[in-house]
Amino acid sequence: MTTTVNRCISDEALTAVSLFAIENKRELHPSYGTLDMVSLLCSHITQGHLISITDADDRVLGMMTYYHGTPDKEFEDKEVAFVNFAIMDRAYRGTRLFAKGLYYMMELMIETHPEIQELQFNALSENAYLCGLYSKFASASYTQSGALGEEIVFCVKVHQLRSILTRFYKV
């Protein structure tokens, strides 16, 4: 299957990825409502970046968001990219599509922001699936209090992640 990973810049791309996120909002947390997701999307559209994974028919299969810098440090720490959330269509979970999307998102970040040295990911402590997934390529560094509960922040250096993903997903 042919897939494409792109930064969402055009109104059409932002609309498509936003509709996908709203339709799949409960994948982030069962308590998430439409207004929660709209607020989160607005934050990423104005202060961060949205990445979409689409098929040959431009159907959104997944999406990821990141900030250049961290919100805690008011985006001053430009050597860090904070990947706030990712959603994959249920049909593609457990496939190599997540690794492909992560690899190409990392490459797009580095191309756009060459000063990035580290990627950070957060997951609710109670989300065993996501914590397990992130621990395959990043180290749990610290915990923090989030809007939905305790979060674990995973960190990985860009060169380490590139090496891990290149072995996993032959590009």
Protein architecture, described:
The protein is an alpha+beta fold and 171 residues long. The protein has a single domain (3-168), classed as 3-Layer(aba) Sandwich (Aminopeptidase). 36% of the residues lie in helices and 32% in strands. The chain is built from five helices and seven strands. A seven-stranded mixed β-sheet has the order 1-2-3-4-5-7-6, with helices on both faces. Strand 6 and strand 7 form a beta hairpin.
Highlighted features:
171 residues, alpha+beta, Aminopeptidase, 7-stranded mixed β-sheet, 5 helices, globular
Sum this structure up briefly.
With 171 residues, the chain is α+β, with helices and mostly antiparallel strands. It contains five helices and seven strands.
Distance from first to last alpha carbon: 14 Å
Strand order of the largest sheet: 1-2-3-4-5-7-6
Form type: globular
Radius of gyration: 15 Å
State the share of residues found in helices, binned by percent: 25-40%
Q: What is the count of β-strands?
A: 7
Domain count: 1
The topology string of helices and strands comes to EHHEEEHEHEEH
CATH superfamily descriptor: Gcn5-related N-acetyltransferase (GNAT)
